[in-house]
Design goal:
alpha/beta; Aspartate Aminotransferase, domain 1; Aspartate Aminotransferase, domain 2; 3 domains; five-stranded mixed beta sheet; binds pyridoxal-5'-phosphate
């Protein structure tokens, strides 16, 4: 046995032999020599490990130059490929956190080339001819759209909440209802963010019921502010009781305390006008009299990742003076995308058609049905031995921890496995270039056209056709 192993080790081709072989000639021309050498070493290491560990690996013919070279080619291509890749989202989850949340529309994208490919007035005041503020580029439009007195932007909403608490409540108490101690995406938890900010959290009420007197009873000399957190990704049903925001605002006024809400998604459009469920808008939150609100740029707003802080001038000014903002500051690529996204909101109708997140959320079933039909016709004749193709009704989700209970009626292209399993099909779609992320339900592969962009439909059809050919041929 040991002797066999030694023979196998010796059978692994040497680096030079591989480099000289015809099999690698083409790839050696296309890629830097360094990368080829690294790939060869990695592949040879893998072979050595396998020979060492796998008792069933006894066939030296698997170690011929041709098959080792094939693995080297695959390795070079894998190493040379960018890690960040375009994927097609066929899941029907619109603000898909793992797939980059909101996608940007054409008008926003067109700003990248001139502004990032050349210099821009990021921190230069063109009128005064001197140093300016990066925040100034979006302050005006944010105030115009929302009616806020003052505005400021940071890296994301987690940073917005953090810097707000650090500025206004460090070493002091923040009162918050137990029913609002939300966790978003596993890494943002209100109690943890609060602790890191140096604020002391005073939880009041119970999970299902919080009364105004619960807040009243704990207000003391150390209280810095009253905090509300939007229950972005969950709801509490049954015997529940909540304090109205307006009541909390009155209580804050009476005690000279700012009332702040982390709105989470922060939408500027009232979705209930379009037959969807009501999500409080940014404008309403400000009209109610909240002193400060924070929300994300890339959830229901449909822009880039950012954290937006709106509200009272004195509070925003205090936050701007905090040294932490330097560490949490918004980058210029984000800023240009955010400014352009906000510009689009000047006309709500245009926003609904040009901001992809809004367009996908409000896309009528009739249009989804037509789109699914188009995809179906492109693949209906795929051989039916490995899977069959149908159309069916289903639901999409907003995602991103927003509107968790809202089901959006959609049309699905459904692939029912025959000889293949749904899991195998899922793997195959993920390995396609570009990878396609599908939904698996009850052992069927579902393609939700709501999140498949128009320009991607053909590619999805091609993937399905190739999968059909692969298994039948
Ligand atoms: C999403 C969310 C956050 C975190 O926002 P990011 O932009 O992801 O940092 C914070 N609070 C609430 C209520 C949220 O919904």
């Amino acid at each position: 046995m040991v002797k066999d192993k030694n023979a196998l080790f010796r059978a692994i081709p040497a680096v030079d032999r591989l480099l000289e072989s015809d099999y690698l000639a083409e790839i050696i021309e296309r890629y830097p020599r360094n990368l080829i050498l690294k790939a060869i070493h990695r592949v040879l290491d893998e072979y050595r490990k396998r020979v060492d560990a796998d008792a069933h690996f006894t066939d030296p013919s698997a170690l011929n130059v041709q098959s080792v070279s094939d693995n080297v080619i695959e390795m070079v291509e894998k190493m040379a490929r960018s890690s960040l890749r375009q994927v097609i989202n066929a899941t029907g989850v619109i603000v898909h956190t793992n797939l980059g949340r909101s996608i940007l529309g054409k008008r926003v994208l067109s700003r990248f080339e001139p502004l990032a490919g050349g210099y821009c007035n990021l921190e230069y005041d063109l009128e005064q001819g001197r140093r300016g503020s990066r925040y100034s580029h979006v302050e005006g439009i944010l105030k115009e759209l929302t009616g806020a007195e003052a505005a400021m932007v940071v890296n994301n909403n987690a940073a917005a909440v953090f810097v707000t608490l650090e500025t206004l409540a460090k070493g002091r108490e923040v009162i918050v209802s137990r029913s609002e101690l939300v966790e978003i995406g596993g890494s943002f938890r209100i109690p943890d963010v609060m602790k890191k900010s140096g604020a002391r959290m005073i939880e009041v009420g119970t999970t299902n019921k919080t009364h105004l007197r619960d807040y009243e009873e704990v207000i003391g000399p150390d209280t810095a502010l009253l905090l509300r957190v939007h229950r972005s990704n969950f709801q509490i049903v049954g015997f529940t009781e909540d304090v109205e925001t307006s009541q909390l605002i009155d209580l804050g006024r009476k005690n000279g305390l700012p009332v702040i809400e982390d709105l989470g998604s922060g939408c500027l459009v009232d979705f209930s006008k379009y037959g969807l469920s009501k999500e409080p808008t940014v404008q309403e939150a400000l009209t109610q009299g909240l002193d400060l609100i924070t929300f994300s740029g890339d959830k229901l707003l449909g822009g880039p990742q950012a954290g937006i802080i709106l509200g009272r001038q004195d509070l925003v000014d205090a936050i701007k003076k905090n040294q932490l903002t330097r560490a949490l500051r918004i980058d210029k690529l984000t800023l240009l995308a955010l400014e352009e996204t906000l510009n689009i909101y000047r006309d709500e109708k245009v926003a609904l058609s040009e901001i992809p997140t809004l367009k996908m959320i409000t896309e009528p079933y009739k249009e989804l049905k037509a789109k699914a039909g188009r995809l179906f016709r492109m693949i209906a004749d795929v051989p039916g031995e490995s899977f069959s193709v149908d159309l069916m009704d289903g639901h999409s989700k907003v995602g991103g921890g927003a509107l968790p209970l809202l089901d959006l009626p959609t049309r699905l292209v459904c692939l029912t496995p025959q000889t293949l399993s749904a899991h195998q099909m899922d793997e195959w779609f993920k390995s396609f270039d570009p990878p396609i992320i599908v939904r698996i339900e009850e052992n069927k592969v579902l393609l939700d056209v709501r999140t498949i962009q128009d320009f991607e439909v053909k590619t999805v059809a091609q993937a399905v056709r190739e999968l059909g050919r692969e298994v039948s041929g």
